[in-house]
Amino acid sequence: xxxxxxxxxxxxxxxxxxxxxxxxxxxxxxxxxxxxxxxxxxxxxxxxxxxxxxxxxxxxxxxxxxxxxxxxxxxxxxxxxxxxxxxxxxxxxxxxxxxxxxxxxxxxxxxxxxxxxxxxxxxxxxxxxxxxxxxxxxxxxxxxxxxxxxxxxxxxxxxxxxxxxxxxxxxxxxxxxxxxxxxxxxxxxxxxxxxxxxxxxxxxxxxxxxxxxxxxxxxxxxxxxxxxxxxxxxxxxxxxxxxxxxxxxxxxxxxxxxxxxxxxxxxxxxxxxxxxxxxxxxxxxxxxxxxxxxxxxxxxxxxxxxxxxxxxxxxxxxxxxxxxxx
Length: 326
Hints:
Layout: H1 2-16, E1 18-19, H2 21-28, H3 32-44, E2 49-52, E3 58-61, H4 74-90, H5 92-104, H6 110-117, H7 138-147, E4 149-156, E5 162-175, E6 178-185, E7 188-193, E8 197-206, H8 215-230, E9 233-240, H9 244-251, E10 255-260, E11 265-272, H10 275-282, E12 289-293, H11 295-315
Antiparallel strand pairs: 1-3, 2-3, 4-5, 4-8, 5-6, 6-7, 9-11, 9-12, 10-11
């Protein structure tokens, strides 16, 4: 802990230029005796520091010396503060760390670093009032991962069936607005949706993780397998240029352009997990797009159209049942 305190003392000196032992004690929440010992230790370690006696005295860095404690370039400082800034708005610990880090970066970079941290606001609430919040069990999982401890997990699968198991958490990944946990279990490596976790109990049992484990690479494998299931069916479409942006918004990475045709249309595919799902997504486009296949998708679209037509016919009142307006 003393090394942390000496570093904090040096940051205070850099920020204030001159400081007395009582002022440093108050800043670091230690005794005056401890603060004086820390200042003497910094001087003995070679920091260009000297003391001024008298009423207006104190400890001061020689010539206003500065120490770059991070080795950050201006570009690196901007990038770091740009990322940390939004977290500091909602996390008191991150806010305190940001202030300390600001004192550690080279003085010429501080203004631009602080501007970077305050140049973005993250509003988690969607229009309409829906608010995206991290699941409540995310923090204990993070602690277990860092401390390399196994956890007892109470979990409910997609159907709602509950289970309790001992797992070795390896890492958490945020995909869109959803958090996932990668973990080793008795049945092999598994992926859990954090929002389905009902309870997390961190045990004293250490987990053993391969030094070659790469969370990003493991997640890429998971994402590839999920995408293979999500994209098991592809619809072949031809659309006018004017509808392409809306289709991209609807299907995202599941849309692939094959070619641009001479008549200003695009030949493309959109992917889904089943003909039924794709038919439900495409039905609202009506005749504004041409659906060339597969046959299973065309059959589903025909079924949806016939079902809607039948419902419209049966629910429409007969002319004799219509009550004229007065």
